[in-house]
Each structure stands twice: as C-alpha cells, then as structure tokens.
Write a structure and sequence with these properties.
By secondary structure, this protein is α+β, with helices and mostly antiparallel strands. The protein contains 4 helices and 9 strands; from the N terminus they run E-E-E-E-E-H-E-E-H-E-E-H-H. The radius of gyration is 32 Å and the shape is rod-shaped.
Length: 178
C-alpha cells in the first residue's frame, strides 16, 4: 500500500510503500494520489497540489538585469540600420566595417578609396548616390545621429530605471524596449 508521511501543516514530505498502515500510525493512505509537496485534507482524505509559490521580487537584482538589457538594446539598435534621407542603410557588423573603412580613408587622405563606386546600397537594394566626399559625410552624419538618438533613448530608460521602485515600473521599461 502506498502511504504518505505528512509534516505539521499536512504537506506530504515522503511517499513510501507499506504492508500495513496500522503499523505506521503517522502515515496516511496514498491510494488516491498525492505526491511530495501536495496538501492533505483530513476532512475529505484528498490530496491537492498547492499553487506554485512565486519567489520574492528582488528589485535590486532586477535593476542590474534591466540595465544590461538596456545596454544590449542600444548595441542592437546601433548595429541594425539608420535612416538617411528617404532611404534606410544597413549598419550590421559587415556594413559598419565598410562604412568605417571608407570614413577612415577619407580621414587619412581626404578622398574616396580607389574604385569607390560613388554610391551606397540601401536596405531596399536601391542606391544612394554619393558622388562627393561631402555626400558621404552627410550619410555618415545620419549614422552618428542615429547612434546619438539611441544613446539618448538608452539614457532615458536608465533614468526611469534609477527611479523605478516597483515591478510594474520595471515591466513598463521592458515593454518600451521591445
């Protein structure tokens, strides 16, 4: 026969097999179910699974985690794309490397690298004409402006984070990162 050992609060703490329940008066029959952690109702003889206990909320730990999430949000935004005029320019690692290489060449030599095509491909596969160094600098300014906007937005999130005192406020900030 399956039997259960209960603690003082009638919570199942152990389940064992016994031949005779009368030999173990501190056990209750478990033939109708019950597993470790279940509650035993003496009046009905039934076992019920208690609802899960949510651990206490740790605001300080959640703030550290959310601060990291904000940093990751900004890094992702900075390495996705940026608007330039009516176009959107890719800014993933490969594209950003190409943009920075052209910018570096311009910085060192004051001109485009040899064989520069005079245009940059937008996300929609159309081309943005860049016939002059100034036109390229304008596109580069669009990229840095987007980076600045991302930084400012992340600082706004962090300002809200520093004054947050509830789980609901933390959830609201996370929702805005989405």
């Amino acid at each position: 026969m399956r039997a259960h050992q209960l603690n003082e609060e009638n919570i199942v703490v152990n389940t064992i097999e016994v031949d005779d329940l009368e030999v173990f008066p501190n056990l209750v029959s478990g033939e109708d179910g019950g597993t470790v952690g279940d509650l035993y109702d003496e009046a009905t003889g039934l076992f019920t699974t208690p609802p899960p206990v949510e651990p206490p909320y740790n605001l300080a730990a959640d703030k550290l985690l959310l601060n990291q999430e904000i940093n990751e949000w900004r890094a992702k935004k900075n390495h996705t794309a940026f608007p330039h005029g009516a176009k959107v320019v890719a800014c993933d690692a490969l594209s950003r490397g190409d943009i920075d290489a052209v910018a570096g060449h311009i910085s060192l030599f004051g001109s485009f690298p040899a064989n520069f095509p005079g245009a940059w491909k937008a996300v929609d596969n159309s081309y943005i004409l860049l016939p002059t160094v100034e036109a390229f600098k304008t596109m580069y300014t669009s990229m840095t402006s987007q980076g600045t906007a991302n930084f400012n937005a992340s600082q706004g999130f962090k300002s809200r984070l520093s004054s947050a005192t509830t789980k609901t406020q933390m959830k609201s900030i996370r929702g805005d990162l989405a």
